[in-house]
Design a protein that fits this description.
Length: 298
Amino acid sequence: MPVVYRPAREHELERAEQLVVQSINDLTQRHGFGKMASLRPAHFQSFSLRDDPDGLWIAEDGGDIFGFAFSWVCGDLWFLAELFVAPGQQGRGIGNELLARTLAHAETKKATRKALITFAFNTVSQGLYVQHGLLPRLPLNFLNISRDTLLNGLQNASIQSAALKATDLQHLSDIDAHALGTSREKHHRYLMSDSGMTGFLLHSGDECIGYLYVNSEGHIGPLAVTRADIMGPAFQTALKLAAEQGSAQVTAFIPGTNDAALKIAVDHGMRITFPMLMMSSANFGDWKCYLPRNPGFM
């Protein structure tokens, strides 16, 4: 039977994420990194499907899911969160067909900036994206450290933090407009509804200077500040708050141009575990002021 391409449905998202995990682990094992992905509930995919169903696509053959693509739009920014083809099904043009449908999503929403995060070693996918005008722009790296090691050298945070409230949304939108050039208010609403996430607004005196999130597993991000010169103290604060979650590990996703966060991370003994790459249709954002959450959320 020919492969059918159609919009994704809510009840299929868990199966689609199983394909994503299988595809990631197949790729990372072939490149010597071992298994990197584990199956998680498809909460963000489900949220995005309800918000904008045009961004999620399935490729199927005889009831089997062979490919999945997921993109979201905020303002004029289109972001490809996931595009994966099942192991053993590559080379059939499935990725090209799914990408064409997600790019049509960008056109429908009149997005003028397009971006994605992919594996730094996946040159096949990079070649596909380059053909569509998405060029390599920014190296990103996952870093981690054991909580016990971090606590041994952790310094006091110099920035005040307070738990996020729903009334802080305008502050968050203003910070994102500076760091990324667009508001992500709907994504903050999603993060605030996630029981596994804790958000903080950062202050210096009476001035609101940024925000950060940490999850129950000790992962930092997203984190954004209004000025590059306060990223170091903000990340120091994030490390302290992440360590307080009690998880065995503390992790972060840091752009290669963010010298302040990288210096703090290295000074505390964090180590790079996984290299990734941002590709986009044009340069955007001030990555000295922003740390992504993960490759799908940005």
